[in-house]
Amino acid sequence: MKHYLGIIGFGGMGGWHRRYAMQSDVVELAGIYDIDPIRCDAAREAGIHAYGSLEELLSDERIDIVTIATPNEVHKEIAIKAMQAGKNVISEKPVTLCTEDLQEMIDASKKYGKVFSVHQNRRWDVDFLMTKKLYDSKEIGRLFTIESRIHGSRGIPGDWRGKKEHGGGMLYDWGIHLIDQALQVVSDSKVSEIFCRFDHLTNKEVDDGFRMDITFENGVRYLVEVGTYNFVSMPRFYILGEMGSAIIRDWQDKCEVVRCKEWYQSNVTPVVTAAGLTKTMAPRDELTTETYYNERPASDVHDYYRNFCKAVEGTEEQIVKHTEMMRVLKVIEAGFESVERNAPVKVDI
Ligand SMILES: NC(=O)c1ccc[n+]([C@@H]2O[C@H](COP(=O)([O-])OP(=O)(O)OC[C@H]3O[C@@H](n4cnc5c(N)ncnc54)[C@H](O)[C@@H]3O)[C@@H](O)[C@H]2O)c1
Description:
It is a single chain. By secondary structure, the chain is α/β, with parallel strands linked by helices. The chain has two domains: 3-119, 3-Layer(aba) Sandwich (Rossmann fold), CATH 3.40.50; 123-300 and 330-346, Dihydrodipicolinate Reductase, domain 2, CATH 3.30.360.10. It has nine helices and 16 strands. It has helices spanning 12-23, 37-45, 54-58, 75-84, 99-112, 126-137, 170-185, 303-313, 322-341, and strands spanning 3-8, 27-33, 65-68, 88-91, 116-118, 143-151, 191-199, 209-216, 221-227, 237-241, 244-248, 255-260, 271-273, 276-278, 289-294, 345-346. Strands 15-12-11-10-6-9-8-7-16 form a nine-stranded mixed beta sheet. A five-stranded parallel beta sheet has the order 2-1-3-4-5, sandwiched between helices. It starts with a strand and ends with a strand. The structure holds nicotinamide-adenine-dinucleotide.
């Protein structure tokens, strides 16, 4: 069954949805609407139908799916209008800015009987999938520390992302992806504490980087860090388990695992430091550890649209669920509260 898609907001991500939704082979593009006439003209020049208004797009009866790719603060209003007009809705992330607004969107999807989800496309990232597999397989035992970082060095973009009124800032922009991943990795426990700190190196109004410590009820400590002022980057994932450690250095790298074979070693060669010798910090060798590389799993991000269409047809459950969307926003809200109070915040999420 073919579905017809209308895209609202035809900027960077709107253009991306146009290509990527088509490649998923389950939707036809009916057209786009952008509040900026220049973007509508750009669409027309590319042979894409541009509607004259949001209402015109929403009244096209062929369209059964609407993707919202506007700045963050208008997702809610457009999503509710679209569902009211009988459309199933994919909102770009963050789905909206607070849990209260999200509840209104969820209520609208129930009231109008429409499928409604958020585009958490980074659930298909192979670095995240390898981390999740390591957590689930326990091949280096129970994981107790996971550090998830992304680092750039160009500051926060100079567009709406730098403005509070548009829902700017890195916590909403990148944080939402990495927090969603964290809750997917540690899927067997609730979150009990959030401690978050913001950077303001290139922007005073919103965070241009942040560091969030997420403590899970089962004891897992999960760090999410986004930096835009890092001229040397840390690895994408650094993971500690009870029987070994792992590292994923970059987005597309394999997962390097060092597994402990023997805990005790009688003859440890000390390492030399400026202040003397240390055995405690001496590296292990192959007598007591083994090193191997976990392959990147197969992953196809086009499955997002494929799943959404099946959810519309009623043959599959939507992958990104309302309860998951709500949990992520609750963590974000606790993050803002923690920054405000400059202290850890106890939660039950
Ligand atoms: N999932 C991802 O990987 C990913 C990546 C980038 C951006 N995004 C998200 O996509 C959304 C758009 O980001 P972007 O980078 O494309 O921004 P952008 O500035 O490039 O594009 C936004 C477009 O929306 C239009 N617009 C603004 N208000 C509108 C309204 N009320 N009605 C219709 N059009 C309107 C603007 O004119 C602009 O063309 C954001 O929510 C962002 O967080 C997601």
